[in-house]
């Protein structure tokens, strides 16, 4: 994975710098999101992997699938990736672009996983505490995992805060077994 990230980083930076200069960071994130989804689709991958397809045909297929969602600069970016045989890197490029965007706009993506659906008031308290702890704005996504039994699991980048009952039981079992 580190090698893919190393190869994708210059493309993500170039797209980010261009989008920032154009004042179109959100638009580029949407375009890259769509392109990454198209590149990740199994049937599209099978089509693009045909050895008899040239770069122009690959770009044309991408443009046809994406439609008006890709502007001319987006199609040019896809053409450059196709020319350099880097279309499969689009999901990694999107991830790196999003990280650059988060650093620029000073926000952190946070996932809250709870055993049951969370009240809005509880979620707002957690968001406020996370903003204070992380020192940035947070974009929150929530999900439910009943195997947690109770409590909340918080994921913010590399940071994981396990406040779930399942996590506490696992830690207790480890202490008893050691």
What does this structure look like?
By secondary structure, this protein is an alpha+beta fold. It has two domains: 102 residues, N-terminal domain of the delta subunit of the F1F0-ATP synthase (Peroxidase, domain 1, Orthogonal Bundle), CATH 1.10.520; 71 residues, no CATH class. The protein has eight helices and four strands. It has a four-stranded mixed β-sheet with strand order 2-1-3-4. Helix 1 runs antiparallel to helix 2, helix 1 crosses helix 6 and helix 4 packs antiparallel against helix 5. The longest helix is centred in the first third of the chain and has 21 residues. It starts with a helix and ends with a helix. The model has no long low-confidence stretch (mean pLDDT 89).
Task: Name the descriptors.
2 domains; ATP_synth_OSCP/delta_N_sf; ATPase_OSCP/d_CS; Peroxidase, domain 1; 16% strand; proton-transporting ATP synthase activity, rotational mechanism; cell membrane; four-stranded mixed beta sheet; ATP synthase subunit delta; alpha+beta; 4 strands
Q: β content, as a range?
A: 15-25%
- The name of the CATH topology of the largest domain is Peroxidase, domain 1
**So, the CATH homologous superfamily of the largest domain?**
N-terminal domain of the delta subunit of the F1F0-ATP synthase
- CATH architectural category of the largest domain: Orthogonal Bundle
Strand order of the largest sheet: 2-1-3-4
From the N-terminal CA to the C-terminal CA, the straight-line distance is 35 Å
Quick structural overview:
The protein is of the alpha+beta class. Helices cover 63% and strands 16% of the residues. It is found in: Cell membrane; Membrane.
């Amino acid at each position: 994975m580190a090698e893919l990230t190393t190869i994708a980083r210059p493309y993500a930076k170039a797209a980010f710098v261009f989008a920032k200069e154009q004042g179109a960071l959100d638009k580029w994130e949407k375009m890259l999101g769509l392109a990454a989804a198209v590149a990740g689709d199994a049937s599209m991958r099978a089509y693009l992997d045909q050895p008899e397809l040239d770069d122009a045909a690959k770009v044309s297929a991408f443009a046809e699938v994406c439609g008006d969602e890709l502007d001319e600069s987006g199609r040019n970016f896809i053409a450059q990736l196709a020319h350099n045989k880097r279309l499969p890197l689009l999901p990694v490029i999107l991830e790196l672009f999003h990280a650059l965007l988060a650093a620029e706009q000073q926000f952190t993506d946070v996932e809250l996983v709870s055993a049951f659906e969370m009240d809005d008031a509880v979620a707002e308290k957690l968001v406020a505490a996370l903003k204070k702890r992380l020192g940035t704005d947070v974009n929150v996504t929530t999900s439910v995992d009943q195997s947690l039994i109770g409590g909340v699991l918080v994921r913010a980048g590399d940071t994981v805060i396990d406040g779930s009952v399942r996590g506490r039981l696992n830690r207790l079992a480890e202490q008893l077994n050691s």
